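#struct-pred

JT: dropping the chains for the assembly here, can someone run the whole complex?
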Amino acid sequence: MIALLIWYGIVGILFSIFSFGFVDPNFPILQNTWLTHIVYQKLYIAALVYTFLIFLLFFLYARILFEKTAFSFRKYALFLFCIGLIFFLSYPALSHDIFNYILTAKVAYFYRENPYVVMPTELLFEPMLQFTRAANKLALYGPIWILGTWIPHVLSFGNVLVSIYTFKLFVISAYVMVGILIYRMTKNVRNVLFFVLNPLVIIETFVSGHNDTFMMALVLYGIYLWRNSQLAVRIMGWGFMIASVLVKGATIVVLPLFVFFRHLSDEKRALLAGMCMFGVFLLTPLREEMYPWYAIWFLVFVSLLPMGKRSFLQGAAYMLSFGLMLRYVPWIATREYGGTGPLIRTLVTWIPPMMYTVWYTFSLKR
Amino acid sequence: MKYAVFIFFFSVIFFIPLSVHAEYVLPYPSVMPGNKIYKVSRVVDELKRYWSFGSIAKAKYIMNMADKYLVEAKTLFEYKQYLLAFDALNRSDNEVIKLPSFIGAGISEKKNMSLIVSSIKEQMSVHEKLLETLKNELPSVFTWTPENEISTVLFIHDRLMESIKLRQEI
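RK: done, full complex below.
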């Protein structure tokens, strides 16, 4: 087990180093290195390296999950801290969203403008506009997220590089909270490992710093409090669940479960909540695209289900996570979002879970 | 000769730069006085004033309101509801008056307000054109005589001139 975790860390170091090849050409530092030359000029090599690293991470993740020897929660926490630190130091290679978070917070707290009224592009000569995408849009996230980002904004002291890490830390604190809550709700370290070591969760949280983990931490804490028998605590639980909806909105589908299906067991509720979130996940292409980090929405609930060697849902979630991380490959290989990209992205996403489903069905018959 | 004419037209079409200008467009008329939800819409407008914090946001809000009330005044003038139209025009003017203070606030906060300033200039010119059109179409003086009430003499041209002057001074 120790060897596997160390290997996971080593691959993490390689991934973190590789991530600096994706530094935006307009980013004030770390431009024009040998790594950026590979990523921006030798596209197919970059795509191969990325695929290889993702494959290794998922291989090690599966091996760790199937490992029979287990440590105490604290020992795991120590290893996870080291692995997390490695990924934390990386550059947000696969998504520009973190820059959008930073700039939206800057609009609100530095310029003191309402980010729901003023777009970042209206702030002429703002240096971050050079490398921030979707700057021509009003604030994309809910008020709780924007209020929360005051903390990393203040801690960054106006430095872009520091703010990348303070914003990541803010999201990582939510990741830690999710890990602790999964442990408290399941009392099983394997359930925690299923979530916290998932390469998709690690990359989208520690590398890209997506706020989906923050949204899920709030809803999970809300559910945790809601299970309490005291009315005041239950009301607080509702408060956290509503706060989660005010981060990104997706968790609104979970709320009816706590109104209409109050007497369900924890396991059934987690299953239903996971199905609801998976439903929203499936609908995301109607709005924009099925982004890999949206998988965090249902992975949290799948992690609450009992772990078994032949658990179909966890197996399918694993394969779907793998497929979703492969969605980045066409973009890394071509640097284009159009062309055959959407078709390839759809295929690489769904082929692994479909193959798993076929294999699972046949293995049941035997 | 044929080639010369062809080359001339080719160069005219492809090489002479043409300036493309996106004109400032006024909004459609919103809910008008007399409508059941008119008062609600006014309350919403007031709430939006607080929602639009920050000098750029406030300037954008004021520009929107100045447009909204001016279009309201135009529609009311067209339907010969002169008293209500005067009221709407007053509200539009009151918003226009506030613009310089928010531009000044933005500049003192070291924000680049040039985008807003150029937008305001365009807006004011569109406002002026609309007010000039109204001045040409409407009577100079009108006596408004409601039932069982004292009549009011409305100096429409003077009032419109006042609004035009205000916009020219901005």
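JT: nice. Chain A is about 70% helix and 0% strand. Chain A touches chain B through eleven residues (CB under 8 Å).
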